[in-house]
Design a protein that fits this description.
This protein is an alpha+beta fold and 397 residues long. 18% of the residues lie in helices and 33% in strands. The strands form four sheets. Strands 11-12-13-10-4-14 form a six-stranded mixed β-sheet. Helix 2 packs across helix 7. The relative contact order is 0.15.
């Protein structure tokens, strides 16, 4: 007799690299990223972070949502969808982007890979197939999710390029930031893009699931002399905060999931004005963003250098008269900046570079909660931005 189906149960999958990541995860720390099991840490978070900033670290990004968009109207469709001019992303290049609802509020951010003139891959944290399909009405375009069809690794850090050269990828050192190139590998094709979420020199490797294990094995063999190590989400989170990168659901609330519509943010309010191109034809949210540009924004995303050594986790942000003007969304003690750093959303007009604000920090030590008011200085740019990130060819170490 067949057992009854349990409709309340949700499928949890393994990535194509799980046969390699599971033995490496001696801490047995995991979490669910969409439908997949991924490692939070493998052996020691601080050492994984150290490998990233001083050698080479590998992160399994296979669960990232990947949408394939192709057809005669693919370019026109994407230009209608996102705020930047996709025509400026040439074939063989990658571009960062955001897309909005009709109110000009950000639904998600991601990267557009222009594989050919009319063939694109859109990578994002959230699943966007429903929104993409609704937005495609009237366009001659094919859209499908290909998350399960593409395995991917982020190879990041100062020796990442040296590792890929040792892997046999001839000419990989000539890739400029946001460029990509295909290489033959194990009877298939390995796509390498000079992209990442760490703010360091790095690459992302995209391959078919059948070649995934071979890629992992040969990559770690090639990187043995270059300090290669696996890295979990905890170390990745540290690096993206140091880089000043935002994350959906953490630093902003996706507009299509918000219950309270005043809690969302526009590109201007996320320090992404450079991604809004009013010179191109109409795109979703254009009218609302033009209105906002004229009247001014409600909020400003800021990067804070926080006094002392306590992370300002979920802290309220005050002005010098102790009025609440915002809140911290991401925070950490940065080993590279040697400072407590944070990303925060504050009300305009506060938050200009050089402004001094205050964070109310609570922390527990030996079962006792402590409270302190820490002075914060608004800084511009990334907290950590090594020159090797932009160098072509990059140094080997």
């Amino acid at each position: 007799m067949r057992a009854p189906r349990e409709h309340h149960r949700q499928v949890v999958r393994y990535t194509p690299f799980h046969s390699r990541t599971a033995p490496a995860n001696v801490l047995n720390l995991w979490h669910r990223w969409r439908d997949h099991t991924v490692a939070d840490a493998y052996f020691d978070v601080s050492l994984e972070y150290t490998a990233l900033r001083n050698a080479c670290a590998v992160f399994d990004i296979s669960p990232m949502t990947k949408h394939r968009i192709s057809g005669p109207d693919a370019l026109e469709f994407l230009n209608r969808l996102v705020t930047r001019d996709v025509a400026r992303i040439r074939p063989g290049r990658v571009g960062y982007c955001v897309w909005c609802d009709d109110r000009g509020q950000v639904i998600d951010d991601g990267t557009i890979f222009r594989l050919a003139d009319d063939d694109f891959r859109l990578c994002s944290q959230e699943r966007q197939l429903d929104w993409l399909s609704r937005s495609a009405l009237g366009f001659d375009v094919a859209i499908r999710e290909e998350t399960e069809e593409v395995a991917a690794l982020a190879v990041q850090g100062p020796t990442s390029c040296a590792t890929l050269k040792a892997l046999g990828l001839a000419g990989v050192e000539t890739l400029t930031p946001f460029a990509m190139r295909a290489f033959p590998f194990a009877g298939g094709e390995l796509l390498v893009s000079r992209t990442g979420f760490t703010g360091d020199l790095g690459y992302e490797l995209w391959i078919g699931p059948r070649q995934a294990e071979a890629l992992w094995d040969r990559l770690f063999e090639a990187g043995e002399l270059y300090g290669i190590r696996p890295m979990g989400t905890h170390a990745l989170e540290m690096s993206r905060i140091e880089a000043g990168f935002i994350q959906a659901g953490v630093d902003f609330l996706p507009a299509d999931r918000a219950v309270r519509t005043d809690r969302t943010r526009s590109p201007f309010e996320l320090d992404l004005a450079w991604l809004v191109d009013f010179s191109k034809p109409n795109f979703t949210g254009r009218r609302a963003l033009l209105d906002e540009e004229k009247r001014g924004s409600r909020y400003r995303l800021v990067r804070l250098d926080v006094e002392g050594n306590k992370p300002a986790r979920d802290a309220y942000v005050y002005d010098d008269r102790r009025n609440v003007i915002g809140a911290v969304t991401s925070s950490m003690w940065s080993p590279m900046a040697k400072a407590s750093i944070a990303l925060a959303s504050v009300a305009v007009p506060w938050g200009r570079a050089g402004d001094e604000l205050w964070a109310e920090i609570y922390y527990q030590k030996e079962l006792r909660w402590n409270r302190l008011n820490a002075r914060c200085r608004v800084v511009s740019g990334a907290f950590y931005d090594p020159p090797r990130r932009r160098m072509t060819p990059p140094p080997d170490r």
